[in-house]
Amino acid sequence: DNLLNIVGSSVHLSKAVMNLLSNAAEAMPQGGTVTVKTENRYIDKPVRGFDVIREGDYAVLTVADAGIGIPPDDIDRIFEPFYTKKVMGRSGTGLGMTVVWGTVQDHNGYIDVMSEEGKGTTFILYFPATRRKARKEKERVPIEDYTGNGQTILIVDDVPDQLELASSMLSRLGYKAVTVSSGEKALEYLRGHSVDLVVLDMIMDPGIDGVETYRRILEIHPGQKAIIASGYVEKIRIQEAQGLGMGTFIKKPYMLEDIGIAIRDELAT
Asked: Is residue 242 part of a domain?
C-alpha cells in the first residue's frame, strides 16, 4: 500500500511484467513457485552491470522463479533480440526479454539479473520513484470511438520491442499492422505497396531519420498520411516534419488511447 509512485506507461509496464512471468513459467517445465515482490528502496550505490546510477528513491519489482536457471555464458545476452529463442530454445517471439529491457530503459530505470543453474533466476527492476501523487485519471474515451476498420498501417521503428508493442496495439484496435525496422526498408516496402497511414519514428540509427524518410515517401506516394511516434526529439525536427505534411506527434511511451486517437484523427483529415 505504501509503494512509491513512478511516472510511466501502464501499457508498456504491464507488457514487461507479463513477459517476465511468462519467462519464469517456461523456466519451470515441471511446475514450481514464482515470487513477485514490490518494495521501496533508496539507492546510493551502483546496481550490478551499471557503472553509474542516479542516487535516490526507487520502486523495485522482483520476479523470481525456482526453475532451471540461466547458464553463465547466456546471462549477459538474454536481452538481445531473438537470443532466448534462437540460442536458448525458448518459445515465443524471442523479443520478450528485449521488451523488458526496452521498457526499463524508457523509464530511466535499471535491471539486475541473478541466476544459478538448477536453482532459478531472479530479475530485479529499479524504477525511479516520485513523491508526486498520482493524477486523477482523465475520463477515458471508449475504445469503440477510436478503433479501426482493417486499414493498413506501416510502423517504422529501429527498436524491435517498439515494433512488437505498436503492432500488438494496432492489431487490437482493428488495423492491419505492417512493421519495418528502418527508413530504407519503409521506402522499399512502399515502392511495391500502398498503406493508409505511416507511424514513423524520428530517430533511427543507422540510416536515414524520420524527416528524410517522410520526404522520400512523398516522392513515392504524394500526400501520404503519417504521424510521428518518438521519444526524445528536437522540436525543430518535429516542426520540419509537420511542415512536409506529417500529422500529430505522440511521445513514447504512449498509451493505447493515445495512438488510437492520433491515428483516427489523421485518417479523418
From this structure: yes
